[in-house]
């Protein structure tokens, strides 16, 4: 058994977008959490991999994602037009395989893009130590400009929180809550001043015996069509210390919350 | 993608810009776009809207013709002309060599006009220069060969790589993705974040009535009524350019530096035009800070996660500037991640603000000086 390392990333920004298998031309969805293909793709970009390069060791990495601040869904109305003011091309191709123009000429196409707004995630990536050393160095000094799932979503600093020899499950249960001081204040305001000793956050981690199947294990990022396969994962709720000052009148905030699993 | 061993430089651009009541980028309900950040609702202008404004601004910058693209069916003619001009060859042998140079690309001639290709090809004028470079030295010798030998001689020439690198600067910066034609994708060299207000602001509506000038005096009511959503904000705008990626895309270090500087100018000076005639929102930024970094791009939007408050009539711009300076200084010192070079343009005169900005980004410069200094730094 070779030595293994776990890399900890903080994925937080005003906007993120983790597309899923529902990707179609004019509607871009987002998953509620960073996808495995999204995170592996980000690491590939950091390493300077081309889209059509084989994934190699990156395909073998396992990951766990913890939704420290789940954020909310933003729907963005989007229009596409050619900045030169010429009509758009249609999806039809001619005999030579070239796209033909829209008829009658159309100048604007509308669509919608979904984003996660105001969210922060802890991502643990686990693999053989030599691979992880390379990946960690690249995440700290990336070759390509990184984005949280979509080009227009730059990450915020710091992206890399560090590395450890602990397995993913321990990292997810042991690492501090990533909510910023301001986000903690917001949490308390939303929960009517509650000051519980812990909060529960949801997490999803690779597990060969997991009871859920996700379709986001990357096979290829080729621009002609990214391909994915399925992976087994396990969902869990993890209690995290809040550091809130339990004043004399503070409520525990630990009542039954049937919607907690949904991250609401 | 650039060689992993080449020197990496990212150029971060931070802009603070206040707009009056306006609606520069609207959604399908006609209201200005918004997003939640730090638990509050804020005005937003999408990345796409500002990138389009930036591309349009390139035209106004007077960028040299050698850096822009040509879209034509007559690439063979264009190449023959340039070859003849460079080598003094007669038009006929020049055309023959040009055709042979392009043959390995499999660009077929149009059925109707032999001198045209079957479709419009978009290439950089600099790319034609590179094709000429491939054959100029031995043009006289090539002209003596017969067609078959000429094709064989040029079959191995690196024509494809000449046409797949050294792109025009707008393609080099914003990238190109053609899903069904492999091998001609270009990785974008810039990133633009959605512009986001540094503070909370609610959407408001302007209820308006329009009078019919020729309305009969006995009839009552307006000719038309409606409402326009608007808000007012101090935006934080962030964009970054990867100089090494731009270098790879353009295939020329000097062009890459010029294109990076042009991007900074165009990004800073541009603005989406939505409802421009109704609101006249065209302002100039109050602060532009540029950081050249060798490790990674750093987005300073975290300075505004806790929304800026405008206590005591300060407005939003000045406290936003202070927050931005504090964040930059924190990242430099606390995280040990200093920038290689910084420059700033602003006109804040408040003693504390000016001092904080000076510590974070250096002395205030005029914008043209900032661009000159940036270009000099990138050329080093």
Automatic annotation (TrEMBL), chain A:
InterPro entries tied to this protein: CRISPR-assoc_prot_Cas5, CRISPR-assoc_prot_Cas5_N, CRISPR-assoc_prot_CasD
Keywords for this protein: Antiviral defense
Q: Which CDD domains match?
A: Cas5_I-E
Q: Where is this region: Disordered?
A: 207-264
Biased composition, class Polar residues, residue ranges: 212-227
Q: What is the official name of this protein in its record?
A: Type I-E CRISPR-associated protein Cas5/CasD
Q: Which organism is it from?
A: Streptomyces spororaveus
TrEMBL record, chain B:
User: Which residue ranges are recorded for the region named Disordered?
Assistant: 21-42
- Domain of life of the source: Bacteria
- InterPro entries given for it? CRISPR-assoc_prot_CT1975
Spell out the Pfam families in the cross-references: Cas_CT1975
Q: Which NCBIfam families match?
A: casC_Cse4
Q: What is this protein called?
A: Type I-E CRISPR-associated protein Cas7/Cse4/CasC
Organism in which the protein naturally occurs: Streptomyces spororaveus
Task: Tell me the organism's taxonomic lineage.
Answer: Bacteria, Bacillati, Actinomycetota, Actinomycetes, Kitasatosporales
Gene name linked to the record: cse4
């Amino acid at each position: 058994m070779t030595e293994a390392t776990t890399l900890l990333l903080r994925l937080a920004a005003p906007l993120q977008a983790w597309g899923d298998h529902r990707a179609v031309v004019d509607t871009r969805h987002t998953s509620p959490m960073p996808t495995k293909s999204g995170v592996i793709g980000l690491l590939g970009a950091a390493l300077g991999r081309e889209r059509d390069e084989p994934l190699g060791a990156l395909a073998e990495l396992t990951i766990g994602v913890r939704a420290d601040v789940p954020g909310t869904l933003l729907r963005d109305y989007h229009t596409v037009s050619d900045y030169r003011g010429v009509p758009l091309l249609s999806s039809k191709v001619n005999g030579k395989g070239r796209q033909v123009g829209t008829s009658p000429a159309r100048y604007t196409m509308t669509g919608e893009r979904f984003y996660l707004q105001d969210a922060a995630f802890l991502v643990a990536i686990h693999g053989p130590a030599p691979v992880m050393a390379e990946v960690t160095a690249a995440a700290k000094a990336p070759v390509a400009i990184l984005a949280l799932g979509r080009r227009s979503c730059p990450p915020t600093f710091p992206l890399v929180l560090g590395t450890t020899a602990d397995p993913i499950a321990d990292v997810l249960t042991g690492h501090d809550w990533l909510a910023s001081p301001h986000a903690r204040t917001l949490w308390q305001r939303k929960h009517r001043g509650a000051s519980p000793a812990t909060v529960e956050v949801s997490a999803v981690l690779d597990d060969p015996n997991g009871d859920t199947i996700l379709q986001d294990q990357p096979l290829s990022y080729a621009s002609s069509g990214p391909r994915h396969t399925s992976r087994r994962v396990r969902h869990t709720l993890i209690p995290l210390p809040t550091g809130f000052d339990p004043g004399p009148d503070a409520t525990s905030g630990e009542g039954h919350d049937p919607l907690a699993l949904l991250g609401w | 993608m650039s060689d992993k061993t080449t020197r990496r430089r990212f150029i971060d651009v931070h802009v603070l810009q206040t707009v009056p009541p306006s609606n520069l980028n609207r959604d399908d309900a006609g209201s200005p776009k918004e997003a939640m950040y730090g638990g509050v609702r804020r005005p937003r202008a999408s990345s796409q809207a500002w990138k389009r404004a930036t591309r349009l601004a390139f035209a106004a910058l007077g960028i040299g013709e050698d850096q822009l693209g040509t879209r034509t069916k007559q690439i063979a003619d264009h190449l023959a002309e340039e070859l003849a001009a460079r080598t003094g060859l007669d038009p006929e042998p020049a055309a023959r060599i040009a055709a042979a140079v392009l043959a390995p690309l499999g660009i077929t001639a149009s059925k109707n006009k032999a001198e045209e290709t079957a479709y419009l090809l978009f290439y950089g004028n600099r790319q034609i220069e590179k094709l000429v470079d491939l054959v100029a030295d031995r043009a006289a010798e090539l002209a003596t060969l017969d067609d078959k030998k000429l094709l064989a001689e040029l079959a191995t020439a690196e024509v494809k790589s000449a046409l797949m690198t050294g792109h025009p600067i707008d393609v080099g910066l914003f990238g190109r993705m053609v899903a069904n034609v492999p091998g001609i994708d270009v990785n974008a060299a810039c990133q633009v974040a959605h512009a986001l207000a540094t503070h909370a602001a609610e959407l408001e509506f302007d209820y308006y009535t329009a009078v019919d000038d020729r309305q009969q005096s006995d009839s009552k009511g307006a000719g038309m009524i409606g409402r326009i959503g608007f808000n007012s904000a101090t935006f934080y705008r962030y964009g970054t350019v990867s100089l090494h990626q731009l270098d790879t895309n353009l295939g020329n270090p000097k062009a890459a530096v010029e294109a990076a500087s042009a991007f900074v100018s165009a990004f800073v000076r541009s603005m989406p035009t939505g409802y421009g005639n109704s609101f006249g929102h065209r302002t100039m930024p109050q602060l532009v800070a540029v950081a050249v970094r060798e490790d990674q791009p750093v987005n300073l939007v975290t300075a505004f996660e806790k929304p800026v408050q405008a206590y005591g009539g300060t407005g939003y711009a000045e406290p936003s500037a202070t927050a931005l300076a504090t964040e930059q200084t924190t990242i430099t010192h606390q995280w040990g991640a200093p920038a290689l070079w910084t420059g700033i343009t602003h006109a804040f005169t408040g003693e504390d603000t000016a001092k904080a900005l000076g510590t974070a980004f250096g002395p205030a410069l005029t914008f043209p000086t900032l661009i000159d200094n940036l270009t000099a730094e990138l050329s080093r």
